[in-house]
Model the fold of this input.
Amino acid sequence: MLPWKNSWFQIAFFALLVSGALIVVDYAHKTSTDSGWKKVFHQAPSQPSEAPSKPSPSSNGSVELAQGRAAHDRQEAMQWFQKAAAQGNAEAEDQLGNGYVGKDNAEAMRWFQKAAAQGNSDAEANIGALYDGGVGVQEDWAEAVRWYQKAAAHGNANAASFIAAIYENGGSGVKRNYAEAARWYQEAADQGSANAQFRLGGLYERGQGVPKDAARAIEWYQKAAAQGNGNAKQALAKLHAAETPK
Done:
């Protein structure tokens, strides 16, 4: 396993597992532990609400999905997601997949595939992430790219950024291709991904896959830094220091 997988993949993969509540553009580290689930349900009120215990079933499981998102513990959430998924709600199916990752990866894959069959881009990206890191399946970056591309085609910026990362590093069935990395980072960056903006800036700074262009590098670093990306801020500081007369 390449060294970058210990950092990039863990961050990227667990950011995807926040699907349905908030895709973390800054790729904050998430886990499938109880503490990770508490972060997923950040939208829950600080005090228990007076929501009815048995709401009327909705036509597409949206009521049950909302109940699951507002749940204060993982077990309760999974029960509501099961009810929503029983009505064919793709978002709930994706959330169920999230809940099984690390516990029953085959079951996680089954739910992700059900949601992906309905065109859910988070589920498509999550399937890609399983192949990306060899979670419950043989590591296969080519298959990961295939699923990430499906998600990216549905407008998932995270998936586009993950494709770029694979091409930037190369390995596990995929050859390094900086031009492809730049293309996919550009797609994600244009959608506002701060991490993609930072990575794209790096490619311009080094002239990898794109013409070396310090001005363009600074432009992308500034966009990422404006969104609070710490790596971009450090890159800008380094460039500024290099230009400052001794």
Observations:
- Confidence is low (pLDDT under 50) at residues 1-57.
- The domain at 30-155 is CATH 1.25.40.10 (Serine Threonine Protein Phosphatase 5, Tetratricopeptide repeat).
- The chain has 13 helices and no strands.
